[in-house]
């Protein structure tokens, strides 16, 4: 900002008038205040801010929605378990009810949390319609694959219509899940269920596909200011457990040794590094359970009771979350240093102070 002394000198030299100098000081002061306000907002803005609720009103309405559909499910539980047309009819009626409620609470009232619930209920109900329309008398692996295909097609089609009408960000996650379910069902049917022998690899590919979709929306909004960040958030929540579980399932469902536990911790830490690079804490949520199991296994050799072992593992896990959460920006700066000046950084969120 130009100093007052410089402006006084400019007035004395006849370059500008005293009135112009006063107006220039006011303008520059206002600009400096706006810049400071913008910087303060950037420093306090949470890049993973997700629009769940605007107040307790949203929670109250959501509670009502859960009660209504809980009563609906309990009251019509018998036809839901019969399969065939009874299941399809009950699920279809539930989908219609959720759509009608979404017309009011989502389209008109713009309530975030109720919209999320109604999206999940509608997607599940539509999937049940497809599941109920094909219930053969004798179930085998091939017929189950066809059920998965039909359910996924119905969920995909219904979610696409729901997104076209209401534009709820989480609906894209339902669409991606429907695509993955349909592909897995088709592969199961075509390969005569042999693909199921490679389920962990299939899960990994599905997880990477969801991750790629999430990163597409993240790169479109690196400053996390539009609904694209909400779309990416839900897709990351879908991708993370698929990727982590497919990588670590062999470790935890085969023979457990200290080496496996250490390798598991290393995998989780590598996963954390990726989360830091893309600035998504949601990526770590799925990995925390595996980290807890690994810590508990390493502590088993110590002379602790079962309750003490559980308590210590939870305290260590919680401390890790608190430490990483508190120093997230510092850790991210360290991880991002090797990438400084590369083209990749243009597709990633900026490093915050």
UniProtKB/TrEMBL annotation:
For this UniProt record, the keywords arranged alphabetically read as follows: Membrane, Transmembrane, Transmembrane helix
Segments passing through the bilayer: 59-77, 83-102, 111-133, 145-164, 171-192, 198-217, 233-253, 259-277, 282-299, 311-331
Annotated protein name in UniProt: DUF2157 domain-containing protein
Q: Which organism is it from?
A: Pseudovibrio denitrificans
